[in-house]
Amino acid sequence: MKPPARCLVLLVLPCSLYAQSPEEYHARADAALESFLLKFWSQGASYLKAHYPDNGSATGYWTFAQGFDAVLDGVERTEGKAYAGWIETLFDAQNQRGWIVDYYDDENWMALALLRAHDLTGDTHYLQRAAALFADIRNGWDTTCCGSKKGGIWWNKAHTQKATASNAGVVILAARLYEHTQLPTDLDFAKQVYAYWFENMVDPSSYQVTDHINPDGTKVFWKFTYNEGLMIGASIELYRATADEQYLTNAQRITSFVAFHETVSTAYGKVLDDGTSSSCAGDCQAFKGPAFRYLKLLYDVTESPAYHNLLRSSANAIWSLARNSAEEIFAVSWAGPAPVDSSEPQAAAAVMALNLFAEASGPFPGTGRPSNQYEAEEAAISGVGIEASHAGFTGWGYVAGWNGPGQNVDFSIHVPASGTYELIFHYAGGAGSASRRIRIGGATAVANFSFPGTGSWDSYSTVAFERALTSGESVVSVAFDSASGSHNYLNLDHLVVRSLTPRMVRGDANADGVLDLTDAVAIALYLFGGRPNLVECQAAADADSSGGLDIADALFILRYIFQLGAEPGSPFPECGADPLEVAASCGAYPPCE
Ligand SMILES: [Ca+2]
Ligand SMILES: [Ca+2]
Ligand SMILES: [Ca+2]
Questions:
Q1: Is the pTM of this model over 0.90?
Q2: Which ligand is nearest to the CA of 552?
């Protein structure tokens, strides 16, 4: 196939076909991840479903870990501004089912996700669980099998084979844990497993990575992208831990094998490939996700345009060739055609790739939502479902199916300063009035908080209460608690936490975070130009601290800017409460929220 014509060469070709803006890649990643959560979160199972449309089964342990990683990619890409509650939701989902299983590679996938959960949140319970899984996996190291050179980690506790997934995967885990523990034994273990696997299970001429070795010493060279992907990841993690260039060279040579032997040509360029959507069945459906992940890691380290091109062409093909746009689902084969249904692992692989590539394309442009608005569908949830069926919600959905004990929604909120806040819920009560118990920081705030009926599920309303909050993080937990009187169905959309002690910066009349000429202009236009929206916080515009707003404030700002007069009084230049208490006139003041 001919390479695609470059939009630079022929300007009439739509450049958008081959290179999108970072904003577009982030929008695609959001759409894919939101669709994934809406389609695969199972309220009934408190787990991820196996299939869309639902076939009644939950996904397996290792494919759940892939879904977990895909969600973590979204949290990482958005710098924690979106999806963050899902980390605890998914941890809790697995915690209810247990962590120790019969396959060392499966435990390793889970441990890698948990370690990332820790790195993104700082919460040590994720790190502890990852370390506990690592301790179990270490028991899988064996020197009695297989073939002439013995070593490596068993694939499973029944000792039927040793696999790249359990060996290269554990190198990544051990090297990353070493970053946290600084225990030489962790790094030594990573090097020991890597040395065995690289010498015995990587072809020295082609750099293909063996899938597994049987107890009789037979090496099985199944060709799957994730085998090479994991060994690339293992090489990079040891390169980062030791600065030994040989590891990086190994990663690049293995990547050459992937580029030449595990890709398919499309109009968008070479795309990662493990076979067609029918030939790549079962676990294979997930494999390109980890392959993409560790190629992206190689790109992060090298910033090589060749690696970027492979990532970009794959991400573009996923969106343009493999996507069912009506359902927002993606084919197993990233070369397409679009599917009519999707397994959870194939969805996780596409969501990972779209999120990882968006991150590589540029910084997250933001959610477009106020920072003091917390979406219920991104809170930590227990026992409830999420949906997006009744328009009128914000974000990408709301919490639903909520009418029983043990079901709750925990919002992690952040307020910049201690003070009195209004907590405003946006909800629909289509079955009549409902109520819930509300706790803040573990203490009951309202035992039986009422959400008046809204007449239908398509009608949303707000209901609010006031509470003093301490600066920093708090958890607002909205729970169905029969003993407290909780009753009836409730669809919860979001929570807004608004300060009733408005904070501002004196003189910054247009609330853009800086004091400059535009503030004086905003005041003049507000007063004389018929532009009432230009000043939402009159207290901030009262630059001369007179207690009122008039043209003298604009002149005060001009004198200050041109160094002819004094700087504004408190609060300036940091955010603070208005000591004159005319702040009741303040509307939105984003720089201090
Ligand atoms: Ca919402
Ligand atoms: Ca300003
Ligand atoms: Ca004034």
A1: no
A2: 3
